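Standup, Tuesday
Yesterday: got the pipeline producing structure tokens again.
Today: sanity-check two examples.
Blockers: none.

Example 1:
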Amino acid sequence: MMSEEERLWARVLTVVVTMVFIIPLFVFNHTSPFDENESPSFSEPNEPTGDEDFPFVSVDKHVQPSTIYPTTAPPEVAPKSATVTLKITGSGQPKNSTKPQDTVFIIDNSGSMCAVPPGSDCNETRIDAVKQYIDIMDPEDRAAIVAFGKDCFSEGFVVTWGAWIVDDWGCIADGKAIHLTYMDKKGREKLKDAAETLRWSNGSTNIEKAISVANWELIPGYVKRTTCLDYHRGHFPSDPPGGDENHTWVEILLTDGEPSHMFNCITEEIQDAVNAGIRIYTIGLGPAANGNWLENHISIPTGGKYYFADKPEDLPAIYMEIATDVEERAFRPLPGTEPEVVDAVPKVLNPVDFSPTPTEIVDSGTYWLVKWDVNQILRIGDSWQASYKVSSNVEGVFDATVYNVAKVQYTGWDGNRTEVLIPSAILEVTNAAPPSPPTNLNAILAGSNQEHVKITWDLSVDDGANQNNVEEYRIYRGDVFDPQGSAYLLRGSVSKGTAEYRDLNAGDGDLSSHFYHVCAVLSSGHKGCNVRQLGKFTRELEEGMNLISIPLIQSDWSLTTVLQTVEYSEVWAHDPSSSQWSWQMMNKPYAGGVQQVDTTMGLWVKTTTVCSLTVAGIVPFDTVIKLEMGWNLVSYPSFRTTYTVSSLKAEIGATEVEGFSPSVTPYCLKRMMDGDALQAGYAYWVKVEVQTIWTVQNS
């Protein structure tokens, strides 16, 4: 008979083996550049294919820290919660497509294409580029053209926001719409002749209606959206037959502007395209094209790409690049409303603080079902992530994943529904007494060129006293400040009785800032961590004037030590209580008034070359800065990145804030806007109407 612990680890091993060998692998197996469009069928989950040389999804779940204390433990015992992170990532290799394509070209024919002054494409290069694309299509491919601009025929009156399927007679009442037609010799010539009818431009930029018409052309039985300003093309005798379910469905949208109507009008059309598996490529022509909107609201959600054409002559090459694109999509949302991620957490753990907010949380009786709609396509290298915190009042070793219930489900490369089980994430809840943490932590720069960070501490009282048998000290490091330090990764460790650690080549010359947590660790793995954190801060300085501050508490506050990595000729500080300046100039034979600094001061430093300000020290909890009525030159000794000028004004009643801007002459200062964030290592001029106290927090 296996023990409970043996059964648990056997189950973990089963999950690991399953993840290694049975992850569904989905490949886009066609020569055209796009993924197929199929009404999803359903297959057994985790069916092995024996080939990983194509896009697929990997799933990871982990808990940090892996050991916590129950919520009933004394207040001073921590941590009592852990963060669970669930991540799905597009993995594998790109793959060419071998399926025929049904492509709808969506062409901007609005007035801006050749307005006065001459518009973006007066020579109508866009028409020539589309014709070149048509010429390289295979005979089994099909294509149609949708144009948008001024509709010359619509129930007897002119519509300036029109969108229509291009016909071979142009804007003539008797014109016949050319629906998706095969690209054999006859079909190519027919569609190229139809494109020639667009050698004019007028009207507005109705992108949303153009996509609706293109969707109508591709999706059988499509119900045209009427969310936005709409019209009806009554001369179409019937709905088009739609795309071939055995072909890839693609739309290629070219525009030189942005929608004539509301941006949100297009939301439903894009969702329809996503549900149908239509990939939309967008091309922005010229500076007026809203590339950010085209990319983030059309191309990315549908799995396409955005291209920018600076001039019309760039268009042919862009169309050719689209034609030779390779498939990189590893994940497509399920059609309908079923959630793609279903996590299952045992009831013994209490999940809270979800990010992003789940679509639904269901109490199944023995576990929590937490569901998310992903609503995005993942390419190779893309990822989606969710996190939440868990705690418990029960001691034990728990799997934060209910096996065979928690899963990621999606539409795979072949249109089949695919499932991947979410792996185990082991969490221990223990009431064992933690060791006393190390004390008197400090950090300085070390090495001949200050290239290392030297971390020191006083030994835990349980080190060598045979109380809790401290075995080692672990140093955890992160590059982004976390007030709890729970997100930091293990950087290194030293044996018991050792009170120093050097983070090699992490000092001057390393352009990243680092933050450190130091813990005493028992043989059982239980940790006692000092709540005080250490850090190394680096900021690159311009040659000339710079406005700086020191965000870490130093063991030596002498100016020459603090600025030991800076090549400077002058330093200036301002005392608001006396409105006097003090200084130190390196070319003077006597020391100036600035000899000692602290975390509250702002400093003007004139450098003689491009260099870096690098300091190591203690991360302050709170810093109290006294502000006099009027202007004050002060530091921002905090690593909070969301604290804005608006926050400062609301907290202390500041009326104006100025910050460093090297391009603004002659004082290198600019007035900051309410939404601008304050940054560690910078200094600011702050104006207040009355004397006040500003407490700068790091939590």
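Example 2:
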Amino acid sequence: MRRCLPLLLALLGCEAPVVGNPLPEGSGACTDGVRNGEESDTDCGGPCPPCPSGSRCETFDGCESLVCTEGLCQEPSCSDFVLNGLEGDVDCGGPCSPCVAGQECHAHADCASRVCASSLCQAPSCSDATKNGAEVDVDCGGGCPPCAAGKSCTGNGDCASGVCLNQSCRAPSCTDGLRNGEETDRDCGGGCPSCSPGLACASPSDCASKVCTQGVCRSASCTDSVANGSESDIDCGGPCPGCPVGSSCRTGGDCSSGACAVSCQAPSCSDAVRNGPETDVDCGGGCPKCSLGRACSVPADCATGACSAQLCVAPACTDGMKNGTETDTDCGGGCAPCADGRSCLGPSDCGSRVCDGGCQTPACSDSVENGLETDVDCGGAADGGGSGCPACTAGLGCGVPKDCTSLVCQLSICQARSCSDGTKNGPESDVDCGGLAPDGGWACPRCGPGQACALPSDCTSLVCQSAQCQAPSCSDGAKNGNETGLDCGGGCPGCAPGAGCSQASDCQSSVCAGGACQPPSCTDGVKNGTESDTDCGGSCTACALERSCGSGADCASSVCLNGICANPCPASGYAGCTAFLDLTAPTADRTVWFGGASKEYNPSCAQIRVGQSVSFSGQGGDTFSDHPLRQACGPRLVITTQTSGSAASFAFTDAGLYGYYCSKHAGMGGAIEVVP
């Protein structure tokens, strides 16, 4: 490995010194006890043997350690990048840290794997007979095969048995909670106890049920061809069907015959077991007849000749035979009445209470209450699939309302119809309302909206449409609800003059006198008719100033501004305008600027011609919300009120003076003179 040192010096940027040997070999100069010739120290270095540590040196190979630093040979170390001292390879092995796989070695101890072969450290393996790498014992555990019992371990996964206890692998057992050894499942099968159903198996002997299918133990069943579970023989006895004659048994219950004497016995009439065709123990069927109270299938099984509910009984009305005082099988005489067509001796023998050569079917004309009738020849809810007899009149018996002509059954008695019985009956058009009495009068109170009707007179609203009473409306052609006149007054539109009323709001004219609506007049103290304000405007006299108007014709001043009668602008001008800036020229800028720091209109007094327009525009960012614009006077309303935005334009079609102002700032106003 010393051949690596020049390579190391090349990597460090150094040049290997040239080693000379001018003295002839064996000259004896290297043993004269004097530093002479090319020696770097006494009798060493140069052509002589390398010097020990601490000696003077000139080159690395002049030192035993191959390390010459600052002219002195150094002690070998594990970090000098030179193979020296007892090292197996450069700076590893010997007293240094172990060498890795591939590095040179002298002994196993030089290697991290503790395996030195052919003077090279080997990588750990699972077959090198050495505990190395991740192994927990020699060649096992870690990444190697699991360890055998008795080997070291750190966890269950290190052991072939899957059991690591006190850092030692244990041998498999049938109680260690693991599937190991020859077990087919955890702690069962193989040499361990049999496995339960659902666990793994290799052969039937691994299973408690002795049934192993597709590697899984199956539950014992009555069809697995194995005597298992609680069976007394193969697939019979215990919870399975009874065993045939000759099979093994423990009790009679294991046998189909119910007789067990070590093996199942054939049935007999003396084996003290109910088996074979017997209906009870050793009786009935082909055996002697059974006594009273014993089980039976047919009367012939009984000594009494009567079998009821599979028991031998004394003769009775339920034994299926005609006996005693019965007129037919189990009916008549002292038994229950017979059904239609059965034999009888008198009415009491029949359920219909009609015996005429035999029991007769109930009829609605046999003068007997029978069948489904609720009284003699009536009732039985004929229209509901009952007897088909007529409904009963008041006072006769009933079961349901349909048994009665009134459809009212109380305390099992049919009641006379009424307007408060909660039933639609008699002439009523709906439940307890509508209809006419036989004398032409009302049968019951009129019906409300949504109830059935036949005539308008059936309804409180006097309106019947599609056989249903309608709610009062203001267009149904009937005086109903709160109306004071036909479809008017109350909650409906006001009534015309002459129609009934109870208050002024009932009338179109808002004038109610003597229970009748009056025509509008110019002296009734009410705004009505064509009036624009109370008793003025429209067809009445013109309105005074400040009264409401629709047009100038409604006002004595002939000026209607913003719906209020007003004066025309004064002849002396408005807002101090006696002279006007002439803006009549076609090219003139007819813009009135408003707002700004002075809060004024500019120009405030302007003259234009008919047909021209004037624009109002805010200055300095002012808007109509800062200076609301309104017209104050003029021949007609042209300047409409502006409360938002910053610009508006108005066209003037009539000559005259038009005053305007800001409704927020007193004294801020102007006028426009419109000339022909």
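Quick observation on example 2: The chain has a mean pLDDT of 86. The helical segments are 4-11.
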